[in-house]
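Q&A log
Question type: sequence-to-structure
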Amino acid sequence: MIIVLFVFTASTLIAQLPPSDQAAIDAYRAAIRSAENGGREIEAAFSKLISLTQTLTRSRGAQGAVLEAISAEEFEHLRRDLPGVLINREEVVFVKPDPNYFANLARTRGDAADRAFFSALKATYPEAVWPVYVEQQTDYSGCTRFGSGTLVDTYRAWSEFQRRFPTRYVAAAKEELDEVIAQLTESTCACGSTSSIQDELQRFL
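Response status: OK
Response body:
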């Protein structure tokens, strides 16, 4: 009896994707494997993940995002085949780095900048998806936790990272700081009262 085993990988399962989309998947997989094997390329892998996020969440017209266009089987295989990546397409489509995975990887394989960056990232996203300064209300929205001190703490953490490592994770660190500032100055949904907003602003002084 001849038994033929089919080994499915992201490359074979997502063959319906355009070559450029498949290339983004393959580039991240190669980069994260190198980082896991001690290649000290964690920042490069994280950069590939940002590109992958843009690829998988890009709209394909009537089909929705790339993640929404693939079959359920392909989606599950893709999710299992991308270590360090949180993928969802129910209610809300997102592709995000797994803070716990990267914090552990940085601790065992990274340098001081890697460890500091992912320590700040894990503190910012303790539950992986929602930032610590936002209280989830629905699958896709939340209120700003003014008065909790979390906006100030997050701002200080990323400012300190930029001060210590000005040439590392530049775009990602800036994005986190910009998001804190946007929540502080543009949020239209506060979890608490007006006094909680005033209290948070006072903490910045």
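Response note: The radius of gyration is 19 Å.
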